[in-house]
Amino acid sequence: MGLGSTAKKVQKLADLAEKMYKRINHMVEQLQDLRGTVDETGARVEEIERELEQHRTLLEAIAEEHDIDVDSAVTDAVIQDADGADPSGDAASPDDPDTAGAPAETTEDADGPSP
Question: What is the 8-class DSSP label of residue 97?
């Protein structure tokens, strides 16, 4: 084996090492960015949890003021969701003053309106 082939092998290894070094540095940068994103997301989640707790406290105070049992209301909502009720809340509810007494939606086809 001559010196020329050894020099080529050493150069090849040096090139490979440089590529690996660049890849590792790129991965380190990505990891640092990811850690920053995770930290920001964690802070947002904590803020949302604080707001949620404030909202929950406010809703419980309003419910108490109107003599509404929060636990039974939550239980009823869970049961309705399990029974396949409209989870979006778009359906007219007799308990909802905004939709109580609202006419049912109808569809219209070529033969005219249908109830």
Answer: T
